[in-house]
Amino acid sequence: MALKLSDKLKHAVRFRLLRTLPTCQQTVETISQSMERPLTVGERIKLKIHLWICVWCQWYMEHLHLIRDTSRAHAAQISEPMTSATLSNEARERIRRRLTNQE
Amino acid sequence: MSEAQAKSPYQSPDPERWLDDHGDYLFKYAVFRLRDDIVAEDAVQETFLAALKAYESFEGRGSERTWLVGILKHKIIDHFRRVGREAPIGEEPDEGPEHREFFKRPDEWQGHWNNDYAPNDWHATPAELMERSDFWKVFNDCLSPLPKRTVSAFTLREVEGLKSEEICEILSIKVNNLWVMLHRARLHLRNCLEVNWFKREQ
Fold this sequence. Notes:
- The structure holds 2 protein chains of 2 kinds.
- By secondary structure, chain A is mainly α.
- Chain A has a domain at 12-74.
- Chain A is built from 5 helices and no strands.
- The longest helix of chain A has 22 residues, at 55-76.
- Chain A is elongated.
- By secondary structure, chain B is an all-alpha fold.
- In chain B, 66% of the residues lie in helices and 0% in strands.
- Chain B has 10 helices and no strands.
- Chain B has helices at 2-7, 15-34, 37-53, 55-58, 64-86, 126-130, 133-143, 148-159, 164-171, 175-201.
- Mean pLDDT of chain B is 85; it is low at 1-8.
- Chains A and B meet through helix 2, helix 4 and helix 5 of A and helix 2, helix 3, helix 6 and helix 10 of B.
């Protein structure tokens, strides 16, 4: 089945872009940097175009933000049921002894 | 002492009650950030001891728990400071897995995602993930093989939300090293979560 001309054109454009733009390996580094500092205009444009043609890097970026948002939200309301962690009885006793000796 | 006691009804500290009222909360707070029961228990104990000494500065202003958490925060930062100091001499501050294989390809697309490691759609939101305690278990297991300083940098940045300069000061590293460490931690953690959590969930 022959591809439509417009599809062929799209493929050709994507191919050229992927060939000339930074690779995914370079792009994921830029994505990480974008979470630490403002990107330069050049970096921003290259990243935008790369993300436009590469769903893998789109997801990569989404995941990094999801990890950050989830970690921070969780840290903000730590008392929620998420962690069943409690002081063990041994630790509790040890701290109690230490505190009462202190007085 | 008796003069001070007369000032307010809060003057006599009750550390045993603190332990009952706030012990578990402080422990949860600490263990999520320190990822180690023993270290977290120590931080809680240190917090109570420091609170006893500094009790006069509290004097019942504000909530007791907020005050204790404030002290605990300092104890946690102290721990990360020690990690920064104690990292073996000669150890590169930016060491850690490179994961070059993620971008190795047999074809002419070298440097782009290898199909086996390429990200997938996770279909997840922070709200649903947060409530899964088994997710946090996987999360911690994924971080554990990373170098201590890298995990510390990651925690201070992504959990505590500290600024780069603050983290560099605490861990005694340069900002470029910090960025390299964060990048490697993210690359590793994202892949590990995908393999060990998201692929199994779907």
